[in-house]
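Cont'd.
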Amino acid sequence: MTGPDDPALTYGRYLALDEVLGAQRPLSDEHDEHLFIVVHQVYELWFKQLLHELAHLQARLEGGHTAHALHTLKRILTILKVVVAQIDVLETMTPRQFTSFRARLDASSGFQSAQFRQLEAIVGPALFRSFVVYLEAQGYAVGAGGVQDVLLAAYRDDGEPAQVGERLVDLDEGLQEWRYRHVKMVERTIGDRPGTGGSTGVGYLRSTLFRPAFPDLWAIRGRL
Ligand code: HEM
């Protein structure tokens, strides 16, 4: 077994660079396909890290650890900013450059990203449930008035639970921002063409905009 005490351990072996750097296998000879593959792979790695941090965040919330939960949220939000900014890199690829290898993608599409679907599922229902568990432990039990009344009470008290709520709104806004940037990238790259994944393309993607992960946290804004 290779471990940190193994004198033969090297940078390349520790990071499994043979596997990581051997995983870019363009299907065409077009220069831009390499960037397309690298950017998607980097995204999948960040998705993996986000899932790892989200599980940690849920545990910290359910354990009632406010400071640690806020710290993990800060890391998640920082990664999300990088993930959104990365769209700029792929936007340096012109429509013609993309068209040069697009047919090779066949029916493959980000639509099939299992990790993205997992992120959607966890951020939506599961993380919000962990937040409710956290609120209950902080003295904001959900009663007959429902979850929005509890959120209102926490926000009016303006203590730590409200801060956690605000960071969750940041997360929600960040994810919506990613969707918006992705749609614009798609629009400038393929216009009104359908997606390789079989959807109408931009039309479908537009229908996913402005859908909050935590609707209750948005619904209370007008009542504060
Ligand atoms: C030139 C670059 C890109 C184009 C033209 C593009 C195009 C599209 C299109 C048309 C769809 C709709 C589904 C379909 O019919 O295929 C889609 C969905 C998606 N794409 Fe991209 N995409 C690009 C880059 C990326 C990148 C870098 C990622 C990062 C992982 C990504 C992730 C996704 C995800 C997660 C979906 C599913 C969204 C949902 O269903 O809500 N895409 N993409």
